[in-house]
Prior knowledge:
The protein is mainly beta. It has helices at residues 94-99, 275-284, 314-319, and strands at 61-62, 64-68, 74-75, 81-85, 101-105, 110-116, 120-125, 134-140, 151-152, 155-162, 166-171, 176-181, 184-190, 203-206, 209-217, 234-242, 249-252, 271-273, 290-294, 326-327, 329-330. It is 7% helix and 32% strand.
Amino acid sequence: MGRRRGGIGIALVTVAMVVGASGCGGGGGKASDKASGDDAKASGKPSASASPTPTKPAGPPMLLDTITPQTGTTVGVAMPISVVFTNPVAAKARATVEKHMKVSASQPVAGAWHWMGDRRVDWRPKTYWPSGTKVRIDADMKGVSNGNGRYGVHGYTHTFTIGDDVRADVSVTGHTMKVTRNGKLVRTLSINAGSAQYPTWNGTMAVIDKQEKVHMTSCSVGISCDKGSPDYYDLTLPWDVHLTQSGTYVHYSTGDPNPGSGSARGSHGCVHLSMSDAKWFYGQVKQGDPVTITGSPRQKAPADNGYADFNLGWDQWLAGSAAGERTTATL
């Protein structure tokens, strides 16, 4: 299923997010297979922790568009720190920029930054965050150059907490989703994933956000704008957990009310749950909880398609870092 809202950013509930075309456009066909780093913007604005420097910078300002997660939030163990700049950062300036964005944690972990294009850079730990960790990002951009004639004039600070370790493991071929909390199985749910024509992304996708109702249309994600097509839809559906910028959700669908191996109805790329299971799952998950999908014929979602950072191996992640691996400072 799919939807479209005005502008690049879409604010769902009260959490920051990355967005684009959304709602079951994660399948094949005409739907986009890649979310660009330039478009992967979170909603909401970062909070400034310092006033502008009184000395006029040597060029126009370099500003941060967004920092995710938002200050004061509790997020899942797979949540990266995602920073979006208002203007491109040149490759020659990235190591310096990374060194001026200090990550501190109450439980020190090894991690690194990784550039998703020239405006977005994410920091993630080598493995998932330990549950209960307090995290702070101090982006001291004052006087820092972006390599393209702009200089930072602000410092930014965000603090957040890693909550319970909630994970969902989806088997496309088994038509099941196993939900665990802090290592213990909570429930096994019946699901249907994408059809052969519109397969679901494989891999791990951290929850972007969730919303009680989402208006989804096939036209908004490039599947079909023809009302006479069997692939056309224009629906408002409940209990939607958002997984990718290209439009993958876990949710209830009126077209597949009793998912499972018996019904064998494929979606347009989303993961379908029954009404009661969708409502229950919606109440269990939060931004940053990992949903891992296996058994689909499709490749893993690109790392910048939402928060699919853990779809890159550690060597791949470090290849996109200018400053390399570092251990967080201790809070």
